[in-house]
């Protein structure tokens, strides 16, 4: 059942309450230097530390549907790694749209799309996508946009399949790594995020212009 209209009718109080719960999981989190000095933090949505609570993933999915243009799309695309899978499934259940999850290993099936990706926290790899058809209108959904490497590869896969990207939606945005700018300048698509934060110093901080 399509729940988009019901979600679009959420009150400001309900939206603010959901957003406040989500922000608590992204702000004030320890920052450490990962591979190649990349600023990394552990969140429930990305690393399941602490474990993801059902209400939290529900809040995230509700707000992505609230702000997203799902009525103008016919497929959702994300990645299977980390928070992309559970988040996309929750969004799909609300919109009744089919979804496909890209993987970091080749499937070697007819119609599979592969694109090289450069990911800030893990290095280079190849992302593989199935299930997107020519002429479809896709919405990209993922957990966090940081340097934009994964999102760029996903969008290139979608376009290589002959589909159109309506917009890109993320729960978190690590502002200091400029992923949004890369997507908007390279593809000219609209990027929407729920929580903007800066991962510098000792702890993550909410972005002042959020």
From TrEMBL:
Key word Protein biosynthesis present: no
Domain Phosphoribosyltransferase: 104-171
Entry GO MF terms: transferase activity
Superkingdom field: Bacteria
Gene Ontology biological process terms in this record: purine ribonucleoside salvage
Keyword vocabulary terms for this entry: Purine salvage, Transferase
Keyword set includes Transferase: yes
CDD domains: PRTases_typeI
Protein name in the entry: Phosphoribosyltransferase domain-containing protein
Protein species of origin: Candidatus Roizmanbacteria bacterium RIFCSPHIGHO2_02_FULL_38_11
């Amino acid at each position: 059942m399509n729940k988009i209209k019901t979600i679009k009718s959420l009150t400001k109080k309900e939206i603010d309450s959901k957003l406040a719960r989500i922000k608590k999981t992204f702000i004030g989190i320890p920052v450490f230097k990962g591979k190649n000095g990349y600023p990394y933090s552990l969140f429930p949505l990305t690393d399941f530390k602490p474990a993801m609570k059902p209400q939290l993933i529900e809040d995230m999915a509700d707000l992505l549907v609230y702000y997203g243009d799902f009525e103008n799309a016919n497929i959702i695309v994300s990645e299977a790694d980390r928070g992309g899978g559970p988040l996309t499934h929750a969004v799909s259940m609300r919109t009744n749209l089919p979804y496909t999850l890209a993987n970091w290993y080749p499937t070697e099936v007819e119609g599979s799309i592969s694109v090289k990706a450069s990911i800030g926290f893990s290095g280079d790899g190849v992302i593989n996508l199935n299930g997107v058809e020519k002429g479809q209108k896709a919405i990209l959904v993922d957990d966090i946009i940081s340097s934009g490497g994964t999102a760029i590869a996903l969008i290139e896969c979608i376009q290589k399949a002959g589909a159109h990207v309506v917009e890109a939606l993320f729960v978190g945005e690590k502002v200091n790594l400029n992923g949004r700018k890369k997507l908007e300048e390279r593809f000219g698509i609209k990027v929407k995020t729920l929580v903007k934060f800066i991962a510098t110093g000792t702890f993550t901080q909410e972005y002042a212009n959020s």
